[in-house]
Amino acid sequence: MREYYEKVVPEIKKLREEKESKQGTRSGQGGYVRSDAEMEQIMNGLTDQEEEEKKMRSLSVIPPMMLDARQRKMRFVNNNGLLEDPLEIHKDAQKFQTRWTDAEKQIFREKYLQTPKNFVLISSFLPQKSVADCVQFYYLNKKDENYKQLLRKQNMKRKRTMTKAQ
Q1: What residues does each domain of the chain span?
Q2: What is the C-alpha separation between 52 and 58, in angstroms, rounded?
Q3: Burial class of residue 40 in the structure, from the number of CB atoms within 10 Å of its CB (0-12 exposed, 13-18 middle, 19+ buried)
Q4: Exposure string (b/e) for 47-84, b if CB count within 10 Å is 16 or more?
Q5: Mean pLDDT of all residues belonging to the chain
Q6: Residues 134 and 122 sit within 8 Å (Cβ to Cβ)
Q7: What is the reported pLDDT for 69?
Q8: Whether residue 86 has pLDDT greater than 80
Q9: How confident is the model at residue 27 (pLDDT cuts 50, 70, 90)?
Q10: Is the pTM of this model over 0.85?
Q11: How confident is the model at residue 71 (pLDDT cuts 50, 70, 90)?
Q12: Contact residues for 126 (Cβ-Cβ < 8 A; gap 6+)
């Protein structure tokens, strides 16, 4: 960008070259001022440098904003998956939810204790129920039925019979 601006405005190139030549003479001094005249010269150089920076800023091209003020105020509102009335949807889902008879519940419990969480196999013993029905039944009733405790009892019984057989 500097090369572009120096081609467009040749004064910038001259100022930069002068600045570089001034810095080259001052760099050999060791970093301290020896007289008031030298201090004044450095101060003038700094003010010239500040003026040059102001000039460069005024000459620089500021790109336009990506969005104007009205567009920045606009927000995206995502309504994907919005449920207008979740209670109504829940009621509709309960209408289509399959009912479980006591015999089906007993078969499910027995087969679950034989093969825990193998819902494909469990559903094969229940002709009216799908795998999804069995999964849903398990997760809706696992707190009430306490399947973990039933499994522990079942395993304890198996261990006892194994030790007696040995």
Answers
A1: 101-163
A2: 10
A3: exposed
A4: eeeeebeeeeeeeeeeeeeeeeeeeeeeeeeeeeeeee
A5: 84
A6: yes
A7: 81
A8: yes
A9: very low
A10: no
A11: confident
A12: 104, 107, 108, 133, 134
Q: Contact at 8 Å (CB) between 145 and 139?
A: no
Q: In this structure, are residues 137 and 100 in contact, taking their beta carbons and an 8 Å threshold? A: yes
Would you say 110 and 120 are in contact if contact means Cβ atoms under 8 Å apart? no
Collapsing DSSP to helix, strand or coil, 78 comes out as coil
Tell which CATH classification among 1.10.1760.20, 1.10.10.60, 1.10.150.20, 3.90.550.10 matches the domain 101-163.
1.10.10.60
Q: Which two tokens stand for residue 78?
A: 């995502």
What is the C-alpha to C-alpha distance for residues 153 and 151, in angstroms, rounded to an integer? 5
- Buried b / exposed e across 10-37, counting CB within 10 Å, b at 16+? eebeebeeeeeebeeeeeeeeeeeeeee
What pLDDT score was predicted for residue 23? Answer: 67
Token pair listed for 98: 């399959």
What is the structure's pLDDT at 30? 52
Q: Give, to the nearest 10 degrees, the angle between helix 131-145 and helix 147-165.
A: 90
Residue 104 pLDDT greater than 90, yes or no: yes
